[in-house]
Amino acid sequence: MNEETEWRKTPTHQGGFLLDGGVHFAAGLRLLLGSDPIVRLSALTNQLQKHLPPVDSVDATLKTKSGATGTFSVSFGTTLSGSEWSVGCEKGSVSVSGSTITTVIDGKEEKVEIKDERTGVPPEVRKWGEAMTSGAQNSLQIPEEALADLELLENMLKSGEDNGRPIDCEFQL
Q1: Cα–Cα distance for residue pair 37/110, rounded to 1 Å
Q2: What is the pTM of this model?
Q3: 71 membership: H or E segment, kind and range
Q4: Distances in whole angstroms, Cα of residue 86 to Cα of each of 10, 66, 103, 104, 167
Q5: CA separation (Å) from 136 to 31, 141, 148, 168?
Q6: Per-residue model confidence as pLDDT tens for the chain (173 residues)
Q7: Rounded (10°) CA dihedral 91, 97, 102, 106
Q8: Contact 8, 124 (CB under 8 A)
Q9: Could you give the CA distance from residue 152 to residue 39 in angstroms, rounded to a whole number?
Q10: CA separation for the pair 27, 10 (Å, rounded)
Q11: C-beta of residue 55 within 8 angstroms of C-beta of residue 45
């Protein structure tokens, strides 16, 4: 990915490239959490690369409606590549790294390889096209879903601007 494009160097919207790219990770997190929405968060932000203003990294602590807590970390300014999702539960864990899903249940590990398109954009565009041709709206692509994704990133940015001040979320579904 070329992060040094002109629109990324001089963003005209809050959050710059972190908001533009990070909102997709927020959508994935919300999908993963299902019916237990995030209700409160606190975040710290940083700019590691001069060409990605105003910030390119966020580390947040999140609390869901049920009281579960977790962390969310995204950086477009680090030298690390790839992404990983990890969830720990009472009897085990699930991790997704690249195209490998690893589950550990009661100490027994299983790995499964999945088709990995390296981005969620192609499947999302296909689903949008299906909705357009069928005339039936995809429930994951309604404006309220996009607003909930955007709210998470905007609240992280606001919290980071205020040294990690906790912020309540209002538009989570």
Answers
A1: 28
A2: 0.84
A3: strand 69-75
A4: 33, 19, 10, 11, 24
A5: 20, 11, 21, 33
A6: 555 667 666 766 667 888 888 888 999 899 889 999 999 999 999 999 988 888 999 999 999 999 999 999 999 999 887 788 899 988 999 998 888 999 999 999 999 998 877 677 788 888 889 999 999 998 888 999 999 999 999 999 999 999 999 999 999 99
A7: -20
A8: no
A9: 10
A10: 25
A11: yes
CA dihedral 146, 125, 29, 55 (to 10 degrees): -70
List the one residue out of 96, 116, 7, 100 whose CA is nearest residue 53.
Answer: 7
CA distance 10 to 7: 5
CB 77 within 8 Å of CB 56: yes
